[in-house]
Design brief:
The protein is of the alpha/beta class. It contains 10 helices and 11 strands. Strand 5, helix 7 and strand 6 form a beta-alpha-beta unit.
């Protein structure tokens, strides 16, 4: 078994971004600027946004946080997005999800300028990704590709099973892995809650990317020897032996697959750290395009 150290790879990506920023400073070019919109007081959202701000500081980016009470109206939020779209100092921005129930998430995300959509969720960018046109790739799928590439896991001609069909992870990664590009050219199957014979699909796959959010669902008897697993799942489960009273686990029963799997990402420390680093990579790209 070879562990894919997402934290280590993420640090390398951030170092590369920092080097690019330093070169921009030397050449009197604009410093990349990432902004985030946070609505309400969701604890997990606050933590995630703060981690993005810290990452910006680490690589030398500018960062801005636009925080609003959860009583903000949809029209007011749309006006704020319009202001950020028109602010030339800001290269990219994200709207932290989830949003309050009275705000239409799709309407909000569609109003983000495609040129600043570093989350890669705008239909224009999503469509370009589907067509294989260079654009902003959603951060988690981009991070998965980066992990596969830097770990030199061969994908060409391999049978790849994507478990989960969300617009954020499952659907885009299935598209990317099937494209005629480096670290693509896989034969991709997308499984979901209505799929039958999931165990058989797993056993027949060379690469499994799981994003279903069911803790330790994939067991050792469900995978073939030497296969590679990218575990996107992250779930907090009770654990009385832990000082915190809980532990974080993925979709894969790590212990039971360890003697069979070839490559695997740990949880935590696998895909998670890559998401923020790829968001910053998209922001650098947005800044370079606007030079």
């Amino acid at each position: 078994m070879k562990l894919i150290d997402g934290k280590k790879i993420s640090e390398k990506v951030l170092d590369e971004i920092k080097f690019s920023v330093q070169n921009r400073v030397k050449n009197n070019l604009k410093i990349p600027h990432l902004a985030a919109i946070l609505v309400g007081d969701d604890g997990a959202s606050k933590t995630y946004v703060n981690s993005k701000i810290k990452a910006c500081e680490k690589v030398g980016f500018k960062s801005s946080l636009f925080k609003f009470d959860d009583s903000i109206s949809e029209i007011e939020l749309l006006n704020q997005i319009k202001n950020i779209n028109e602010n030339d100092d800001i290269d990219g921005f994200i709207v932290q999800l989830p949003l309050p129930k009275h705000i239409n998430q799709e309407v909000i995300l569609n109003k983000v300028s495609p040129a600043k959509d570093v989350d890669g969720f705008h239909p224009n960018n999503y469509g370009k990704m589907t067509l294989g046109i260079d654009t902003f790739i959603p951060a988690t799928p981009a991070g998965i590709i980066e992990l596969i590439e830097r770990s030199e896991i061969q994908t060409e001609g391999k049978k790849c099973l994507v478990i989960g069909r969300s617009q954020i992870v499952g659907r885009p990664i299935s598209i990317l892995l099937s494209q005629n590009k480096s670290f693509g050219n896989s034969t991709v199957t997308v499984a979901h809650s209505r799929s039958k014979d999931l165990e058989k699909l797993c056993l027949d796959s060379d690469i499994i990317i799981s994003a279903i959010g069911i803790p330790e669902f994939i067991k050792g008897n469900m995978i073939k020897k030497g296969s590679s697993i990218i575990d996107v799942g992250i779930t907090r489960v009770d654990d009385l032996s832990s000082p915190k009273g809980y532990k974080i686990v993925g979709d894969v029963d790590f212990k039971s697959v360890s003697n069979t799997v070839g490559y695997i990402t740990p949880v935590p420390g696998g895909v998670g750290p890559m998401t923020i680093s790829m968001l910053l990579k998209n922001t650098l790209k947005a800044c370079e395009i606007s030079d």
